[in-house]
Amino acid sequence: MAVNGTLPDFSFSPHVDQVGIEERASRFTKRSIKNETKVNGLKLALNMIDLTTLEGKDTDGKVKQLCYKAMHLHDVYGGLPTVAAVCVYPSMVRVAKQALGNSGIKVAAVATAFPSGQAPRDVKIRDTKFAVDEGADEIDMVISRGKFHQGEYNFVFDEIAAVKEACSAARLKVILETGELVTYDKVRRASDIAMYAGADFIKTSTGKISPAATMPVTLVMLEAIRDFYYKTGKKIAMKPAGGISKAKLALHYLVMLNEVLGEEWMNNEWFRFGASSLANDILMQLMKQKTGVYQSPDYFSID
Amino acid sequence: MAKVLTNTKKIQVHLNGNGKEQVPAKRLNVLKTYKMYVGGQFPRSESGRYYPALNKSGVTLANICLGSRKDFRDAMVSARSAFSGWSARTAFNRSQILYRIAEMLEGRRAQFIDELLQQDVPVKQAETEVSLSIDRLVYYSGWCDKYQQIFSSVNPVACSHFNFSVPEPMGVISVVAPQNSGLLGLVSVIAPVIAGGNTCVVLASSEKPMCAVTFGEVLNSSDLPGGVVNILTGKVKELAPYFADHMDVNAALYCEKEEATIRMFKEKSALNVKRIHLYNDINWFSEEGQSPYFIFDFQEIKTTWHPIENIAGAKSGY
């Protein structure tokens, strides 16, 4: 068991006021962030990105190209941070690890029969162990949404705990796939289960289901993290993924993070963006701030 | 408060003892809000600013959106995303849509004449201007699937290749429309740009902006996909620098004679080597105001080398 003491009954996870949470989330988009603050915010967001490619058509070449991009975001702009990690399928971990060398950029692997999670537990464990053995620093697992909907919370809990064990030193991100959980109440409950079962991160989505990450859903999860922290003293990280492709939206998320969890979470150890096209939009905004000229994707690397 | 010019006779306003207005005897006209046309929608300026369009005698005709650089930025996003779809349409389909714009304009003839009259254009000239605008659209509609034949070529080469050159649209064009003509100037610069498969962001005449906004409504009801033409209203001085230096603009068109602005366009466009065209001495009312070469100005020539087999000693000549 990840947390000492008795486990709560997850059926009694707090209910979420839908109207309230959506209203609250929309308030975060009204802050005005300009000039220097904007540049700092954009650089921070850039540093929080898990640059992702999760396609059936991924090749070694594609992953190498992504890794190169992770290390050299836009060399014209001096002093840029790198992204936090590169996120790939387990079979690509070795290639990514090699390509990234000692750049300090982490390799995250999606495991446990991503994205559906419809596989027996021993397959999921093997999948995880394979990725870890290949050198993955972080494992992104998916929960069994079907079992969750059936009310088999113990099954979901045990599965997360088992995968956590298989991760050994790697940090575990638990993908709730909020688009398939449908209600905020269920998102909250799944968050609680994941955190108590030993997740290091909770993550919204695989990026394969629409809707992916939204601000209200992320807010529900951030509040779950906050409550968990007050109860247990343990910090959990957050990763919204999918659908965040504009720099402005990323800044809204940072505002929300700052106002819900505070400055301690404002770094890439405790917060990540799972995205592929976000990096280029942030780079374009940074260049706009630097040169005063609106930018074109023609002059940036291909996602 | 600015006096508002209306089509009807002066409205009687009754004042009671307190000097307060009572309900007027006749109904008040419901005046149109002149908004910009961006991405197939009619937004106000992001800045919330506006300026009054005045006629010669200083009467306010309407309040017009005073577009900002962010409006231009947003319009550029619309224009860019519309480009792939619009340039992939068949030439015949683009032709149909341009003809449809002409049809819609014909249907609104009276409205445009009325707006031109309000903006001090004499009756005869207003009628001519609207007619010519319609005819010009039909003219470019006809050219949509024909300019390719005129400007493409098959080139003689000294090897076994079939070598040919064809025009292709440049991309997104930023246009500062002629300032002295409210409708004809605008139509004359938009039509060739979109006939060639480009999309555009256009800054309308700031002195005579009303027809431009109404023309946006015509475009919106004529099968033209949203974002292909985006019409902004505002001041040339303020917006022209962004029309010239935005990195996502492929070519720019400036239709005035102001030396400083021309110079600025040439300097700033060097940043991403965008093509510059200056139509600053063209009488849009004359025959020189329409030509397939206006389409050609916003085309790039792409040359293809296609290997051909040398069968049984056949030569590559024609």
CATH fold annotation of chain A: TIM Barrel
Largest sheet of chain A: 8 strands, parallel
CATH topology of chain B: Aldehyde Dehydrogenase, Chain A, domain 1
Number of helices, where a helix is a run of at least 4 consecutive DSSP H or I residues of chain B: 10
The gross shape of chain A turns out to be globular
Helical residue percent of chain B? 25-40%
Main structural class of chain B:
alpha/beta
Helical coverage of chain A, percent range: 40-55%
Helix and strand element order of chain A: HHEHEHEHEHHEHHEHEHEH
Low-confidence stretches of chain A: none
| Cα-to-Cα separation, first versus last residue of chain A | 41 Å
Give the second-level CATH assignment, the architecture of chain B. 3-Layer(aba) Sandwich
Question: What topology emerges from the helices and strands here?
Answer:
The complex is a heterodimer of chains A (303) and B (318).
Chain A: H1 18-27, H2 35-47, E1 49-52, H3 60-71, E2 85-88, H4 93-100, E3 106-110, H5 121-134, E4 138-142, H6 145-149, H7 153-167, E5 171-175, H8 178-181, H9 184-197, E6 201-203, H10 215-232, E7 237-239, H11 247-260, E8 273-275, H12 278-291
Parallel strand pairs in A: 1-2, 1-8, 2-3, 3-4, 4-5, 5-6, 6-7
Chain B: E1 50-54, E2 60-65, H1 69-88, H2 91-107, H3 109-118, H4 123-143, H5 147-151, E3 153-155, E4 161-169, E5 172-176, H6 184-195, E6 199-203, H7 210-220, E7 229-232, H8 236-245, E8 251-254, H9 259-269, E9 275-278, H10 292-296, E10 299-307
Parallel strand pairs in B: 5-6, 5-8, 6-7, 8-9
Antiparallel strand pairs in B: 1-2, 3-4, 4-10
Helix pairs in contact in B: 2-4, 3-4, 4-6, 8-9
Compact description:
By secondary structure, chain A is of the alpha/beta class. Chain A has helices spanning 18-27, 35-47, 60-71, 93-100, 121-134, 145-149, 153-167, 178-181, 184-197, 215-232, 247-260, 278-291; strands at 49-52, 85-88, 106-110, 138-142, 171-175, 201-203, 237-239, 273-275.
